[in-house]
């Protein structure tokens, strides 16, 4: 939404929670650090063997980009209290 440091950090978190959640384990062998930090023990941990097995295990990735979203820091936690889900965990509100 803006070039503020809070919105830039929220943008990275939104990307981590929407894209990194799936691609980071396949490329780096683990979930994004922002997810580990925010989700804590609700996010499963890979064993060393599991991480080594999935890391760089893909041959091809296709990304179809249809819509641009703007992100901003979300300080409203009502969703987190009610749903306890990835939308709340990201701490980012995305708008198209």
TrEMBL record:
<protein>
    <submittedName>
        <fullName>Beta-glucosidase 40-like isoform X2</fullName>
    </submittedName>
</protein>
<dbReference type="InterPro" id="IPR001360">
    <property type="entry name" value="Glyco_hydro_1"/>
</dbReference>
<dbReference type="GO" id="GO:0008422">
    <property type="term" value="F:beta-glucosidase activity"/>
</dbReference>
<dbReference type="GO" id="GO:0005975">
    <property type="term" value="P:carbohydrate metabolic process"/>
</dbReference>
<dbReference type="Pfam" id="PF00232">
    <property type="entry name" value="Glyco_hydro_1"/>
</dbReference>
<dbReference type="InterPro" id="IPR017853">
    <property type="entry name" value="GH"/>
</dbReference>
<comment type="similarity">
    <text>Belongs to the glycosyl hydrolase 1 family.</text>
</comment>
């Amino acid at each position: 939404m803006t070039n503020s440091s809070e919105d830039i950090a929220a943008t990275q978190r939104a990307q981590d929670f929407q894209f990194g959640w799936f691609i980071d384990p396949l490329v780096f062998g683990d979930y994004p650090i922002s997810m580990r930090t925010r989700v804590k023990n609700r996010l499963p941990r890979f064993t060393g063997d599991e991480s080594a097995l999935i890391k760089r295990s893909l041959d091809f990735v296709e990304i179809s980009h249809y819509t641009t979203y703007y992100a901003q820091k979300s300080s409203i936690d009502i969703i987190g209290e009610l749903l306890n889900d990835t939308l709340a965990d990201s701490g980012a509100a995305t708008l198209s």
